[in-house]
């Protein structure tokens, strides 16, 4: 278990419980079940208290937890007949973005998402989920395909932001993000987006300009990272806690502001402690939303999506 900074009090308790069990396994005559169970109950109560009152900065830490389920985990668990499609037909294949044809509850869909990787090798290969222009152009190609064949689009967002490197800027990073956002608004099929971890800046919006946007309970969605915000406003990245408070980046804040449509509840301790349960909760939410949106016409889907985003931040604004 990778413990976060604020979870350190749990380390000793859960460590002692595991130590007792290890001793019992080594000595069959030793019965420590009651002691271990008491420690488990104490740890569970502490975990419930910790996750019942998370600060925005602590939620940022949870959203970035390396053990959270990533895009590939959701695709493998929820979708069948997944056929990956690669490349932007222009420059290269961006491994930070994965996508292709699949079935959700036997309904043909196009799924697109950011993939961060799960170890050093794959994280470097996936560029830590930070897409380059070719990644967004690959997404545009997949959205065009979905629109042509009337397939719903499901996007799984988990990125610190678009890659800010020199090469990406030279190849038109901002233009690619803008085109991807534009394509999301134009397609006449249902678009559903789930923020499964980090939703960072335009890199996330390019996939999340959807008819329905949902977030996992402890995920975050913001125009900039708390560290970046603190560096700009206070010239001090260490003020990231204050920045996290000011940015209103939690799922609960964004739901109250009307930026997202729903929150998918996570198990106590976060998605990283009960990966399968979290993945299945997202699957149920996707199935429900897909059923709702499939009843709408192409024109209604485009109109509703446009109205949704024009209305954010104001009341009664017509499309």
* Integer count of domains: 2
Q: How many H/I helices? A: 14
Which of globular, elongated, flat, extended, rod-shaped describes the shape?
Answer: globular
Q: Estimate the mean pLDDT confidence.
A: 91
* Strands, count: 8
Question: Which features does this protein show?
Answer:
14 helices; disordered C terminus; 2 domains; alpha/beta; 2-enoyl-CoA Hydratase, Chain A, domain 1; 319 residues; single chain; globular; 8-stranded mixed beta sheet
Structure summary:
The protein has 319 residues and is of the alpha/beta class. Helices cover 50% and strands 15% of the residues.
Structural features, described:
- 50% of the residues lie in helices and 15% in strands.
- With 319 residues, it is α/β, with parallel strands linked by helices.
- The protein has 2 domains: 5-53; 61-310, 2-enoyl-CoA Hydratase, Chain A, domain 1 (Alpha-Beta Complex), CATH 3.90.226.
- Strands 1, 2, 3, 4, 5, 6, 7 and 8 form an 8-stranded mixed sheet that branches.
- A hairpin with a 2-residue loop joins strand 2 and strand 3.
- Helix 4 (71-78) crosses helix 13 (275-293) and helix 8 runs parallel beside helix 9 (201-208).
SSE inventory with pairings:
Blueprint: H1 8-26, H2 33-52, H3 56-63, H4 71-78, E1 80-84, E2 97-104, E3 107-114, H5 120-125, H6 133-148, E4 153-159, H7 166-170, H8 173-186, E5 191-200, H9 201-208, E6 212-216, E7 220-222, H10 226-233, H11 240-247, H12 251-257, E8 262-264, H13 275-293, H14 298-310
Parallel strand pairs: 3-4, 4-5, 5-6, 5-7, 6-8
Antiparallel strand pairs: 1-2, 2-3
Helix pairs in contact: 1-2, 4-13, 6-8, 8-9, 10-11
